[in-house]
Each structure stands twice: as C-alpha cells, then as structure tokens.
Amino acid sequence: MTLAGLTLSLVSAAPATAASLGTWDKVAQCESSGNWQINTGNGYYGGVQIYLPTWNAYGGREYATYPHQATKQQQILIAEKILAGQGAGAWGSCGASAGLGSDHADPYPTTPPAPVGMVHLTAADFTGDGRKDLVGVESATGKLWLYPGKGDGTFGTRVQIGTGWNAMSKLAAADYTGDGKADLLAVENSTGNLFLYPGTGSAVGMNTLGARNRIGSGWGGMRDLTAVDVNKDGKPDLVGVDTNGALWAYPGTGSLAGSSTLGGRVQIGSGWGSMAELTSPGDLDSDGKDDLVAVDPAGALWKYPGTGALNGSNTFGGRNQIGSGWNSMHQLVGADFNNDGKGDLDAVQAQAGSTGGLYFYPGNGSGGLADRARIGTGW
C-alpha cells in the first residue's frame, strides 16, 4: 500500500490531471478496502489514504479537519488536486493498478458543491469595547464578517468587513502592533505570504481593518496559526505546525516592522502532525498563563498548559485530556467570551458539506470546560 502525499519528491513524470469515479473507487479498494471513513491511526486517512499535511496543503480543511471526516466526494475532489500536483505516483502501486495515470475523465462532470458555512474563525476585541469578537470567512462568498461579542458568550448582528477573503486562510488575531487595537494575520494562498491587517479599534464596515502589510513569506506550509502569549511578556506570539509536524513559536515584538514584526522562530514541540484544531482559549486553569488546546484523530480534546516561558519543548507542560467526542467539532476558536476572566472555547458542529450549530463552551477556571450552549445556527 502506498499513501497519498508520501512520494512528492519522487514523482518526475508529468502528473495526470483527473480520473473517473470508477478509477478512484479502485484506488480506494486497494488503499483502504473501500472504507472512506477509515482512521487506523497510521497518520493517513480516508478512502484513498491522504496524509494530513497533504490534505491541508491542497485545501482539504475547507471541507473537514481530517480526510476521513469528509464525504467521499470531498475526499476525491482533494485527491484530484493531489493527482494534478503530484501525479499518480502519490498512490504507488495502487494508483498504477487502478490506471490512475491514464484515466483523464472528470469524476464529477458537474460543478461540485462549494464549501459551506464559516471558516478560518479567530477571535479578538476588534471593536475596542473590551469584549471578544469573532471574525471568519464565509466560504461560499469569500466575505469577511465580524460578529461583535456581547460579553456574555454570545454575539450581536454580524458586520461585513472585507471581500475576496477566499484567497486567504490561516487567520489569527491579536494586537501585534502594540497600539492597543486587535490586528488580523492571514496567509495568502497563492503566494504563502503572511500579511498583517492593522485594526482600527472600531467596527466601521470595510474600514474596520487598515491597509495590509506583508510581514513574512514561505508560510504556505504552516497550519493552525494561533495567537498566544507564550512568554508572558504582554506581546502576543504566533504558534503553528509545519508539514513535518513540528510546533513553532514566533515571538511577537509588539511593533509593526515588516519581516521583523515577528522574531526568530523557536521549535517548541514535535509530533504534532496528527493534531488539529489548535487554538488558545487564554488562561484555562487560572494561573495567569495562556494555554493551548488541540484535538487528536480519535476526537480527544487536549489541554497543553502554558509555563509562561519560551523554553523549547518545555514551553508548554504535560498535556491533559479535557474532552472526548470532539471529532464532530471543527473551527475551534478560543477567548474569554463571557468576560469572567476564564478562557472559553467556541466550536462548530456540522456534518461534512453542511452548515451546523455554533456552540459556546465556558471555561470552569480549573483547566476544563463547563456544559456547552448553542449560540448560533447556519455555521
């Protein structure tokens, strides 16, 4: 068995660009006995066994966190992109025996359904009222929306603050310029450039964010960008996972200075390739230090307690499981949404290809979460 994404550097022939549905079924039969929801724990998922970093790199997160959580059609749509980029060799003997390189038919001749719901959620106080707001991209339109926080865990009527944001991803929010106003970071999909959109401190429609500034390049391979003050210096840092599963921290400088807005990165973890939905709720356990949470392939929710120091692999302490069944949740975003001084989580529960409910999980102040409440629909 050969697994998608494993042979990127080995493919030298011109890649095929498409294959029929029947051919993909043959590949899946070889790779996974035709089980499109399979997760064996080997780091590869779904019917055609897609490697998680490859899934992320080719846009799979628009559909689901892990390949096996997406529908068969969605998995094949991403597999088509992999086929076009890497060629049939990405599936080795399974691709060859199925005729993947010689079948150029379109598996879905009609236009497939576009991704639905809100994606790339992030949170910060964009309106300057001391309450955490929610920002996200409407996947069907590319519009950027701000949901003003009420300070009680719920949100007011949304305000459109941008267009064309389907060209951006990996949003993270915090005051990176040191002016007391929340800024928005995002990666441009086509170039991998990292941009900072300075906040104005008020919700004024399309003028809520100022003109963007490029602060980095080569960010296309990073995922799950999360704002968190890892060293407790009052300046938000940025953490993210690379394609090798390494967790990195980019210390914030507290000023807008082009490529020097973030300092030199420090590796703070390894083996994060199978973890997803990284976010920081802030302080979950009332020790004054920002924590990190993430979901594993089995759906367990883990808390990584902050130590308040940027100290390599000891930047976060030993993890604790604080939930299960989180494989049905996605778009995790953390902040103190109810202004009680305790870190909280919001998350969307939806079937693949459908919108769903937005849920609020209040922090209990002792490292865990209290009972959830549904605070929105159509997400």
Automatic annotation (TrEMBL):
For this chain, one GO molecular function annotation is:
hydrolase activity
Q: Which domain of life is it from?
A: Bacteria
InterPro entries for the chain: FG-GAP, Integrin_alpha_N, Lysozyme-like_dom_sf, RPF
Gene3D superfamilies of this UniProt entry?
Answer: 1.10.530.10, Integrin alpha, N-terminal (2.130.10.130), Tachylectin 2 (2.115.10.10)
The record's section on Pfam families has: FG-GAP_3, Transglycosylas
Q: Which UniProt keywords apply?
A: Hydrolase, Signal
Membrane-spanning ranges: none
Domain Resuscitation-promoting factor core lysozyme-like stretches: 22-94
Q: Is-annotated flag, keyword Signal?
A: yes
Q: Write the signal peptide boundaries.
A: 1-18
Family that this chain belongs to: Belongs to the transglycosylase family. Rpf subfamily.
Record's protein name: Resuscitation-promoting factor core lysozyme-like domain-containing protein
Species: Streptomyces natalensis ATCC 27448
